[in-house]
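Lab notebook, bench 4. The sequencing result for the construct came back, and we need a structural model before the next group meeting so we can plan mutations. Quick request posted to the team channel:

Model the 3D structure of this chain.
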Amino acid sequence: MTANAADFAGSVCGRRYEKEMETHFRDCLLFYLDGRVRFERYCYGEAACLVFSVWAHGFDADGAILWDKEPEFESQRTALPRVLTDIQESGTALQFDNLRKRYILTEEFATDKANGYGKLKVFLLRHRK
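Done. Here's the predicted structure in token form:
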């Protein structure tokens, strides 16, 4: 499936998609205007925190996510979505690797300063030609 990661970013800065029906972890995919993708895994509970995150620079022609660096641990590598296999509900639900659990649009954000997308960068990305 041919896809452009920037198409899932919306019109402001980016969008967050969260994996549905997760019980132990909160897996999120963030798509940005410049085509970058960030995977984030959080744990639940009293000590909820970011477990790990990985950046990608988009999709290849077959819909495979082009991860910048593979995680060191096997449990982290198996958590990563690999290939976009279906786009559902007008782009608000994404299916990867033909798995039942989808990533559902949960948020559209104007900036993401913590990940390097402050107001100036977003302005420049939105006005580039």
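The helical segments are 74-79, 119-126.
Will bring this to the meeting.
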